[in-house]
Model the fold of this input.
Amino acid sequence: MLTLRDISLFYYDVQALDSVNLTINKGQWVVIVGANGAGKTSLVRTIAGIHPSKTGKIQLDGQDITNRHSHEICKLGIGHIAEGRQIFPTLTIQENLEVSGYAVVFPKTKIKQKLEEVYHEFPHLKERCKQLAGSLSGGEQQILAIGRCLMAEPKLILCDEPSLGLSPIKVSELFQLLQKLHKKGITLLLVEQNVEASLRYADYGYVLERGQIVLEGVAKDLLNNEAVKSAYLGE
Ligand code: ATP
Done:
């Protein structure tokens, strides 16, 4: 579904990504793990069209989407759940959801239908649809960010550090929710510092260090890899 070939990103003279190659198959759950500053967010933002790649090519279902604008990428079916949720705190829950439908230029009837689907998935959001999003807890805001992404009917979701700042029980609930969405057929690219949980749930993993992919493999195998254990799992 998605291929990255030789992707490099610079912030002026700081190189954040160095010749990254990556493949995501339809229906797969892929995770990118790495320490602070490894380049995970930069990679997600490059795919989402926020940062331009200096080299290489990104293809979605065979179509070249390299350096297309983020609103075009979104319309092509790539949803982006940004690090830190990035909800609109002064809008209500419902307005936050609707904004996403308008961003991909769905007609009003379709937005209504998508709203019903999201509310069916997350009844808690429906109960509090008129509440300001900024008054939600971190875990609830993360659910809203996921709901907002689903409003645009993505076939691939880029999910950046969703567990950040959540309690262990909320992290576990979050991973179960992502698993449920994945089982419904959504292809997922997750970026996480929570190496153990993400490798336990994902199908395939990449390890990113200083902007380079240094290791890749079946997620369960990476979980048992000695280098991964010693660098990221404190074993
Ligand atoms: P974290 O887990 O802390 O979010 P990360 O793996 O997502 O880290 P990035 O945020 O992508 O890493 O950062 C990769 C590198 O690029 C780091 O060295 C970072 O300092 C640098 N960087 C990120 N954003 C910018 C920017 N806007 N300007 C300059 N350098 C940046």
